[in-house]
Amino acid sequence: MYQLVSSCSPSSSCINQCYCVGDTGPLPFVRRFSLEDIKRATGGFRRIISNYSQGSVYKAQFRDGLLALVKEVTALHEGKDAFLQEVKLLRRLHHRHLVSLRGFATGPERFLVFEYPEHGSLKEHLNDPLKTPLSWRTRLQIAIGVTAALVGVSVTILRLITPDRFENWEYLNFFCEPPINHVSISSSNVLLDENFVAKLSGIAFLGSPGNHIGMSHSHASCSEGHMDQDCKDMIFQLGVLILELITGQSSEKEGGNLVRWVQESKFIGSVDKIVDPDLGNSYDSKELKSLLAVARFCTKTGDKPTVSIQLILRYLQGK
């Protein structure tokens, strides 16, 4: 069981400094927002950035100046305790390439509040003609950063739920993938900070009924075959994102065509025609071929994942 501890009344409109108290101790300094705070900051829930499996995602501006990403949580089958477990787990995710949890709101409706990096979403920079085009080096670092975020989630959660195996780095590298229920990798979920460092926002732990990942599921989360489909979906999404970085084309409109193109046996002969025109000739041909090789592998259908996210990261880093 978890309880909220605060110096303010839960019905108050103030922003509280709270923490969740549970089996593993307190989780300090998670801000609790009132539902009225959320409504006001999102312009009456009109500032929608995108939609995902559990609701809408909003851009929010709070009265104290905080610019934030607010995620609605509607598919909450497990109840209040599961939501607080979600808050607890997300608060413990500290990684350079993951957005940080800033707070939450609970009641008839539930919301998670994350940091909103200065330069907004990758989608805006690829699709908005008024934005300065991203350089090749920046695009490569975004691909590496998103992949590193997935590895970071894997290590952090395994540290929490399988401490006896965490020291075994070989186990982490070759047998475990992130034991999480929801990963959404898209240009809308990749945010860019003031230095254009990528931060992934599409991470969640709440799932369908009977599928919530708790502390007792440590061994099942990493058992052979358990994550095959989830890993396959995640790796496929990563491949589509890489294609979007290379071409500048929206995966929402051209995703299927891009995948079919990269899977063609003679695709390499038409690479120059598919590269984002905004790049001109300012890209490294060797790095381009490496990125395309990763995208081709990731979007190959019909097979189980044979290479872990960790090994994909090593390849992208040139190791």
Automatic annotation (TrEMBL):
PROSITE patterns registered for this protein in UniProt: PROTEIN_KINASE_DOM
Keywords linked to the UniProt accession: ATP-binding, Nucleotide-binding
Gene3D superfamilies on file: Phosphorylase Kinase, domain 1, Transferase(Phosphotransferase) domain 1
One cellular-component annotation, GO: plasma membrane
Residues of the Protein kinase domain: 43-319
InterPro entries recorded: Kinase-like_dom_sf (IPR011009), Prot_kinase_dom (IPR000719), Ser-Thr/Tyr_kinase_cat_dom (IPR001245), Tyr_kinase_cat_dom (IPR020635)
Molecular functions (GO terms): ATP binding; protein tyrosine kinase activity
Name of the protein described by the UniProt record: Protein kinase domain-containing protein
Native species: Papaver somniferum
Lineage: Eukaryota, Viridiplantae, Streptophyta, Embryophyta, Tracheophyta
